[in-house]
Amino acid sequence: MRQLARALEIPESIITKPPSADLWAGQTDEGELGFTYEEVDKLLYLLVDQRFRPEECMEVGFDETFVRKVVERIRKNQFKRVLPPIAKLSSRTVGYDFLYLRDWGT
User: Fold this and answer.
1) Is residue 9 included in any domain, yes or no?
2) Deepest in the core among 14, 19, 26, 59, taking most CB within 10 A?
3) In whole angstroms, how far apart are CA 93 and each of 47, 80, 97?
4) Pseudo-torsion of CA 80, 61, 36, 72, nearest 10°?
5) Is 47 helix (H, G, I), strand (E, B) or coil?
6) Which H or E element spans position 65?
7) Residues 55-92: pLDDT tens digits?
8) What's the pTM value of the predicted model, to 2 decimals?
9) Cβ proximity of 67 and 54 under 8 Å
């Protein structure tokens, strides 16, 4: 992402600004998490994209405490990745049985 930002000539001060909710002076997301986004991105790539098991991540060099901490955060925040229930007003449910082929209508 930083490479893309530099290619687009985004000011360096924006690119290097630590991610923060800015709730208080000196707060950073990485400080709150206890690890950097760069570190966790590498781990998440293996866990999510490559479907590694936590043990396999440790085998390739990730610290066990770090892996366990990230996996626990993933588990605790699963509810954020689930759509809330909605009132069903018809016999079809959007995203479930209200799907069409990509080329529908052509």
Assistant:
1) no
2) 19
3) 31, 20, 5
4) 30
5) helix
6) helix 64-76
7) 999 999 999 999 999 999 999 998 888 878 777 777 77
8) 0.69
9) yes
Dihedral angle sign, alpha carbons of residues 25, 29, 30, 34: positive
The whole-number pLDDT of residue 22 equals 85
Domains of the chain: total: 1
For 68, the domain range is: 19-81
* C-alpha 4: how far from chain center: 19
Residue 94 inside a domain? The answer is no
Residue 2, C-beta contacts closer than 8 angstroms, at least 6 positions apart:
15
Is there a contact between 5 and 16 (Cβ–Cβ < 8 Å)?
Answer: no
pLDDT tens string 1-55: 788 999 999 999 999 888 888 888 989 999 999 999 989 999 999 999 999 999 9
More confident residue, 105 or 11: 11
Instruction: Answer whether residue 58 is part of any domain.
Output: yes
Number of Cβ within a 10 Å radius of residue 17: 10
